[in-house]
Amino acid sequence: MHIKIEQLKPSSTTLAFENHQFSDEEIEYILQCKRLLGLSFKQCILSEHHVEKIAQLPKLVNLNFENTQVSDASLTHISQIQSLNYLFIVNSKLTGEGFKSFANHKKLDCIWACNTQVNDQTLQYFLNIPKLSTLLLHDTRVSFDGLMTLAQHPKLRVFANLFSTAQIAEFEQTQRDLQKTNKQYFSHTQVEDAKAKLISFFDMMNQWEAYAEKIGFCDELQQKCQQIFQQYCTDKPRFGYRPDGLHYSHAPNFSYTDEIMIDVDHASKKKLYIFTHDRLKGQNRYTLILIDGEWRIDEKHHFSGGWKKYGL
Q1: Other C-beta atoms within 10 Å of 180: how many?
Q2: InterPro entries, alphabetically (predicted)?
């Protein structure tokens, strides 16, 4: 592959290169694309000086190095890209020492460091990246003990083929435990009643979605959804969410198919959190409020960069 300056438009927002050894001149051509948001190198040869130059791109959001050697020293330059949200590194000899330069980076949300030499010692640097929500560590030197140190990060979801489903579940449990109030306001019976209320709501909504498949969107469908919410949920506006804004999933994967309860937290004297795994193994948190001795479902949050509101 040979890059010609006339092939690069200064208005380009994404560029991808494969199987190429870059010259200094070619890197300068790339730097002319001041609007560049995404840049990908696959099986390319870059010098550290080239990476330093690339870090000057003012709007870069997404940067990918696949089978392209990136050193820990290069990470120091990459950390200067203040707009960077996504950094993908696959198959590199870096140890992760360079990630210490990303401490307090204001926007970095997702890091892949797969098939690298990242290890327990260098994991600590990820704890200092406040916005980091997704970390892929496939084929690294990280141990389970090392993984568990990351549970201190309240927003982080870790994916790694090094660990079993049970080990990832233990990590998630520890992460939740570190955020809990560690108080018990409700009796065992009250907690079981709350769980039963939530399970019944799941069943009713799955039945409603099965019915929705048959009749489609209509006034009757809206009324049936409103009736379920009146029976199970707190009375408040839910703009954009059910029952105000209708949507439904299709069989066999209805909204609450295979939702499994995994944990609870006594949030306050009137509020209980019930945590679940959905069918995709994502974590959900349901807020139930005790009103006049009766549990009411108030809100749902999904774990993605912390707990984010998600419609019931």
Answers
A1: 13
A2: Imm-NTF2, LRR_dom_sf, LRR_FXL15/At3g58940/PEG3-like
* 283-291 and 271-277 strand pairing: antiparallel
CA distances from 82 to 73, 135, 155, 194 (A): 17, 19, 20, 45
Residue type at 131?
Answer: K
Calpha distance 207→282 (Å, rounded): 22
Cα 39 to Cα 51: distance, rounded to the nearest angstrom: 12
| Reported pTM | 0.90
SS3 assignment, position 194: helix
List all residues 6 or more positions away from 30 whose beta carbon is below 8 Å from its beta carbon.
Answer: 3, 8, 15, 36, 39, 54, 57
Q: In angstroms, rounded to a whole number, what is the distance separating the alpha carbons of residues 296 and 129? A: 37
- Rounded CA separation 308/312 (Å): 12
Own/partner pairs, 220-223, CB within 8 angstroms, 24+ separation:
221/246, 222/246
Rounded-to-integer distance, Cα 209 and Cα 120, Å: 46
What are the tens digits of pLDDT across the range 280-295? Answer: 999 999 999 999 999 9
Q: What is the pLDDT of residues 179-213, one digit of tens each?
A: 998 899 999 999 999 999 999 999 999 999 999 99
Of the pLDDT bands very low, low, confident and very high (cuts 50, 70, 90), residue 9 is confident
DSSP conformational letter for 304:
S
Compute how many other C-beta atoms are within 10 angstroms of the C-beta atom of residue 196: 11
Q: Give 192's contacts (C-beta < 8 A, 6+ positions apart).
A: none
Q: How many helices (H) and strands (E) does the chain have?
A: 8, 12
Q: How do residues 242-254 score in pLDDT, each as one tens digit?
A: 999 999 999 999 9
